[in-house]
Amino acid sequence: MAITSANQLELLQIADAVAREKMIDPGLVIEAMEESLARAAKSRYGSEMDIRVSIDRKSGRATFTRVRTVVEDELLENEKAEFTVEQAKPYLDDPKIGDTFVEEVPPVDMGRIAAQSAKQVIIQKVREAERERQYEEFKDRAGTIINGVVKREEYGNVIVDIGAGEASLRRNDKIGRESYRPGDRIRVYIKDVRREERGPQIFLSRTAPEFMVELFRMEVPEIYDGVIEIKACARDPGSRAKIAVISYDSSIDPVGACVGMRGSRVQAVVNELQGEKIDIIPWTDDAATFLVNALQPAEVTKVVIDEDAERIEVVVPEEQLSLAIGRRGQNVRLASQLTGLDIDILTEEEESKRRQAEFEQRTKLFMEALDLDEFFAQLLVSEGFTNLEEVAYVEVDELLVIDGVDEGTAGELQARARDYIEAQNKAAMDAAREAGLADDLANFEGLTPQMLQALTADGIKTLEDFATCADWELAGGWTVEKGERIKDDGLLEPFDVSLEEAQDMIMTARVMLGWVSPEDVVGSPEGDTEATEPEEAGA
Is the separation of the CB atoms in 474 and 502 below 8 Å? Predict the structure, then answer.
């Protein structure tokens, strides 16, 4: 088709209209048109030719040109788009490597197929430009709240129109009881913005704890100004939530400020979250006090914190037990999320019975192992000694604080404890040897005689057997069958071997056997042991 002045202007008008509609640069649309016209021209003149199209940004005139590049003789591959220095002399005055010869060619008559192909190129380029613009606009807005309009629902996911494109509110990011119809206005939290080849690039949420934090920031001026800070937030979306707040101004009550006059501020957040009940808790540096507050409305009698294990033991009266746990464990679960600690809840009676049982067990151990009378063994337990290793290897001064213990008695206690431990170790090692323990596993660093006995009893007798184990086989783990979590007991779990320690030991064994190199171990992320097991087991 001959390109007349009428459709020349039409090209620019189309480009401008598409650019305005999609909110992208008109230049990108024109570049897409140039590429599509060049592709159509190649189908006419030959795909090997380097055909380029240039559309004048003012007049709309499309110029079709053929480009040939000067290359070295030995690099000449495509004679339609390249030529040598000798071949270029009739066309260029002083041809050099890299020079180009450009000549205009007649415009092509675009057939139906070429026009359809050109249309597809333009659509694809426009779509890519639109997605890039959307990403650039929203990449810095992750972590903020935005208003949108429900467009449609796809497989449980809600597609939301946010003005400059579409975003996805996935099924697990919706509050359970909520349902939406096309045209409904919705307030959502921008959870993530990432480049995707297809589908939405912006991912929304209404269940994220950060959504509640941002809602409070909008409703409470003190939070927006930084006078009050939300230190932690835990949610059971649609049901209950807990937030911990602190005030940096002693004259402002953080809980009262978040509640508002007659509960107006917190009620606005509750209404937005479909009636989700919110407990507002004062935050404090003291972990025990904070936990007592977090377990409200239950009353707590005693708190015992194990900082090494990141566990916390809470004792409550019998009548407060169900309140502390909450419906389906909701209250204690939210308190655990808020504090970042694992919480064990006991009644006063359960705690008393457990401590009595532990006391009796340790007393019996000291009586049998150290040949002591009951009174003396109870003294040791009362001073905080829990096992024989503590008695055997503790500083003598710590034993001297016990009434009736002098240096001679302390030395005798430690000697008896060491003799007993050595006898236990020898018995365990002999049992492991009888079961077929190999020297390479016996000499492996980190395994005690008791551990070796447990391994050989399960058929793990050599270093190679040990290296083929998975970390969960040693440290224990959980398996999900038919929706139920089933506990898998680890061979070394009774010896308090963690999953990380099991991973380290297994990988060390594999390095010693030459299955993997030390560099691979350093460069690989934790937890790859299980994934590499089958390959290495068959080595």
Answer: yes
